[in-house]
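The methods section describes the discrete structure representation at length, but only in general terms. What matters is that the chain and its backbone geometry are given together, residue for residue. For illustration, here is how one protein appears when written out as sequence plus structure tokens:
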Amino acid sequence: MTVRTRFAPSPTGHLHIGGLRTALYNFLFARHHKGIFIIRIEDTDQTREVAGAREEILDILKQVGLNYDEGPDVGGKYGPYVQSERLELYRKHAEELAKNGAAYWCTCSAERLEKMREEQQKRGDVPKYDGACRDALRPGSGQNAVVRLRVPEGRTITFVDAIRGEVSFQSADVDDQVLLKSDGFPTYHLANIVDDHLMKITHVIRGEEWLPSTPKHVLLYEAFGWEAPTFAHLPLILNEGGGKLSKRSGHAAAMDYVKEGYLPEALLNFLALLGWNPRGDEEIYSLDELIASFDITKVNKGGAVFSMEKLDWIAGEHMKKANPATLAKAAVPFVEAKGLPYPDDAWLARLMRVEQGRAVKLSQVGEETGFAFGDITYAPALLVPKKSSKEEAKDRLKKTRAFLEDTPERAYNDHEKLSIAVLSWIKENNLGNAQTLWPLRVALTGREKSPGPFEAAMLLGKEKTVQRIDEALRKL
């Protein structure tokens, strides 16, 4: 059997971060089993569709590296992969169910249904359709009618969830769900089952909010005489207060993290651990490592807390491990958006070496290295370290200037080599690290807290490094 999973978002707005995790788990499961990962756009609710949402969803998946094998823009032999392009299929299947008695036509007006719900709520009942049209004949042409699922009475509906084990529902608690609306569009429940069957989906991995709908889906598979896929319902993502992560609580839109410049592997690493952990205490994984380790049966049942602190820590670790040249390429849009000038790609790669260990996302590039992009201002007193004097700071800067002016230009391309040379010189001349390096760092960066003097010199280059020392000497 070839494993086939799908991520089926609705283009009704920005992709939720929980939706991205669902896509990731489907991707990991398919790749772990050398299967197929599919994208299907579920746009049957036309009234809620947001222009551009479909394109944004597909763009996010590509940007973070969740490449799919079949989908609306890449094709496949089970397409089309957009539900609004499959309406005739759903109509035929709905009519088949109505014909064999597993569903029925309903002509109840919106007014009657509203009145029915109000009366049920007054009695304290859970609102559900009362079955008034269960035994009605098929309506004539021109009548507004929907097709409803005929839920059998007195049944226990049971299925095995890959995460939660055996789950049971009583049919008395299951509504006669609308399957086909009067406008010819299917509801999620019909379209979902028809598409999953025709697209040969073997595993349905989705959020736990769909768990109460699963008995309806089990009944639909039975009614069609189809084998149901394996279901796996993922735990909710919670905010740090313990509530459901929502748009109101912030941090909910996946695109926000892409726009802020979190590295794709860092974001996926973080999301993978929201409800699942591969092994031991290790928390930093590449995408390939996640694929190799992923086990859907080890996903937790309880909700997973979304911690920005944890995301930033994981993101920072991935920044440290990344190749500086690769980071530089990814950072270009962020650097240019801030209007920060840079001479060439090689210099930008050196900048990223300095940013590693400081920035956790690409939108932070330049926050601690602004001294490398323009002029600096600072008070002369900042040049003098504690337990030192103005005269000593001036002396150390003069001597350091002379040494750095004699240092070859190529040494400035690597802060580690420059560090070895300068520290050896300081030791040989008994100048003291603190007394020498503090005024040098302030002269180059203009800040009390900043990257080290060797990193600053690497970014500034020899000529500008010497110029800034001269400016500092004039201040003193």
About this structure: Residues 453-475 form the longest helix (23 residues). Residues 159 and 167 are 6 Å apart (CA to CA). The mean pLDDT is 95. The two ends are 77 Å apart (CA to CA).
